[in-house]
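Recall the central idea of this unit: under ordinary conditions, the amino acid sequence of a chain determines the structure it adopts. In this exercise we apply that idea directly, starting from the sequence alone.
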Amino acid sequence: MSPEKRIFLYDDAQWEEFVLEWATTLDYVQVLRNGGANDHGVDVAGFVTAAGFEDDWDCYQCKHYGKALIPSDAYPEILKIVVGVMAGHYRWPRRYRFAAPKGCGTSLSNLIHSPTKLRAGLEQELVKTKSVLVKQLGGHLLEAVVSFIRTADFSVFGTVELCELVEQHSKTRWHAARFGVDLPARPDSPAPSPEPSIGEQRYIEQMLDAYAERHGSTFTATEAAAHEHTGGHYMRQRVAFYSAEALRLFARDSVPVGTFDALQREIFDGVIDVHDLDHRDGLQRLQTVVGTSHTLAITSNGLLPIVEVRDRTGMCHQLANDNRLRWCHATPQ
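Accordingly, the structure predicted from this sequence is:
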């Protein structure tokens, strides 16, 4: 099922969540979902500065209807903004966009693209006999509201089309999980730096201790990299660590928050019992734990389609970097 067809099945709350996620792709310092009671006509707000509603801001009105919007759908929402500004809840928005899966019908679309006609249409609807809109005035005099409408900038009103929403949403970390589509292409992992970085110190210390237990002599990182028995292993572990770190960064931008941490937790839970067994030395513990991580049957994480074997190795070293795994039990925590 295409994203568009899935969206047609959403309820109001799901639609607001989707629009909120989409709005994170825009140039805001913060986006806020404001729908619900006392929202003063604002479902999703995008703040241009930290001053929020007191500075430039954009309003997104989410309407998940089974039909295209018509003027009578729009007038009450526009009036809410008028009354909200008059009541001091916020300043007049920089932009106001209707977000509706079925879009706007021809009549409303023509009005929105002719701001003077949209203004006149709202005023006419408001002042006609027995207008239902007068119930929304919130204690403001009809004359005062009409006067405000006549001077307000109605060019701020517009629409966002479903195709635009879906295309831009595809750049968010929620898209693949929400619609069951493939993750974006994963960039190549960087090569390890010639000298270990500050962020690598702990897991490398743990590897050097494991080499020392096996070979009966201490190693520096440079010596381990050049040693005939440890050099190949040492470099493979660093490559794997860099791969796992690159996966962590990829996950930050491509999947919901917590997805990578959940995968790392699955690795930890799958290897900890093997880790805690008696082993000949720290190097055997390291090798056994890493080998176990390769065979774990993990089935429910959103990153699985792009996880490589070396990522699992690297996550073991991330856990060692955080002292959650320790190869030599005599190594101080």
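The first strand starts at residue 30 and ends at 33.
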